Amino acid sequence: MAKAKLIVTKETETGRNVEFQDTRNNRIMSDKELISRLKTGNSSYNEDYCIKHDKNRKEYVSSKPDGNEKNNLG
Question: Does 73 map to a domain?
């Protein structure tokens, strides 16, 4: 299995992922920055991650399903 491109480096008390680190270049990104990159549609992250919405329509980053129920952002 390929190494994840992103790992979570910071969460809120409720478990929302708010900061990520790219494992290829160690770049740290906020959730807002990552969401912005995903919205461009041509980011290297689009292959493995997508934007979802919670019940309050707030955007968050999710890994794309790969058939493994245990697999998610680190």
Answer: no
